[in-house]
Design brief:
Helix content is 45%, strand content 19%. It contains ten helices and 13 strands. Strand 8, helix 7 and strand 9 form a beta-alpha-beta unit. The radius of gyration is 22 Å and the shape is flat.
Length: 302
């Protein structure tokens, strides 16, 4: 508690925002990289200061109270205004920078290995690169170009589909040799499963599309970063649900093996979103031209 001002620190309101958005301390903890206990503690701090219960504690989790829902709207509006003011201030200090946002998995495994070529072609362009796996929202984050893995983009934002994506189970050759190749998708129920915490329901999606029942995720291992999940698969720790675009190099090298073909269409696609007015910025136009050319090369190689 900020004893001098008598108010909770700003981070308490941000924790409440995330917990309220998910209506779950556990999911908020995964997004924030904290424990659910740490989230619950900060929410209790805010509730004690307000003298108001913001969440109703239930046997299966938590739900916002009526007053909590109203307060969440006010908090989100205030945090959004603060974030936008911060971005405007930073933009004034570096007005010519290309503000790039991308979903973490795509940023790490597809874009970063190629980005040096763009910098060599355009050394004059300064890049501010952040990652975000949420929906495209100009009110929440300032950007010029945003590559998102989502079901869709708001109509108010100019966008186009960059890549379709499919899902395929993959594992290391060593794990495959030790367990033997599974014959039916349902055989994976006896295997250790790996997943990205941002897409924890994708195993259920893949198995449902293969009519193989529901997964037992109580024994599955989740990872905050997609690259961590891939590394776990490379080390033989289990079967990962690979995004075909991102694991293609590993399949080509033979360090990962696809277990079932054909792949299943993912519930989301890679969208290229352009902020209003950014399409006219020279640095954004240069990046967009380069990115679309790289996309065509990748499609041709695939």
């Amino acid at each position: 508690m900020d004893e001098a001002a008598g108010r909770p620190p700003l981070e308490v309101f941000r924790f409440f925002d995330v917990a309220g958005r998910h209506q779950s301390f556990a999911k908020a903890a995964r997004e924030l990289g904290m424990t659910s206990g740490a989230v619950a503690h900060r929410v209790r701090t805010l509730e004690q200061y307000l003298g108001e219960q913001l969440f109703e504690r239930q046997p299966q989790g938590v739900a916002l109270s009526r007053r909590g829902q109203a307060f969440l709207v006010e908090v989100q509006h205030t945090l959004s205004a603060l974030d936008n003011a911060t971005e405007r201030f930073r933009a004034g200090a570096n007005a010519g920078a290309l503000k790039l946002v991308a979903v973490e998995a795509f940023a790490e495994l597809w874009l970063m290995p190629r980005l040096a070529a763009f910098r060599r072609a355009h050394p004059e362009i300064v890049i501010e690169f952040e990652t975000d796996h949420h929906e495209v929202d100009p009110a929440r984050r300032a950007f010029d170009v945003w590559i998102a893995f989502v079901a869709g983009v708001p109509r108010t934002v100019q966008s186009e589909v960059l890549f379709e994506e499919t899902l395929v189970p993959v594992c290391s050759p060593g794990l495959l040799a030790s367990k033997g190749r599974p014959v039916h998708p349902a055989d994976l129920h006896g295997w250790p499963l790996l997943y990205d915490l941002a897409w924890e329901d994708y195993w259920a999606h893949w198995l449902a599309c293969r009519e193989a029942g529901a997964p037992d995720m109580s024994r599955a291992s989740g990872y905050r970063l997609y690259s961590m999940m891939v590394q776990a698969a490379l080390e033989g720790m289990g079967v990962a649900l690979g995004h075909s675009l991102l694991i293609a190099p590993y399949l080509e090298r033979g360090t990962l093996v696809a277990l079932f073909e054909p792949p299943v269409a993912a519930p989301a696609r890679y969208f290229l979103a352009i902020a209003p007015g950014s399409g006219e910025k020279p640095e954004a136009r240069a990046f967009l031209d380069w990115l679309r050319a790289e996309t065509r090369k990748s499609d041709a190689a695939g």
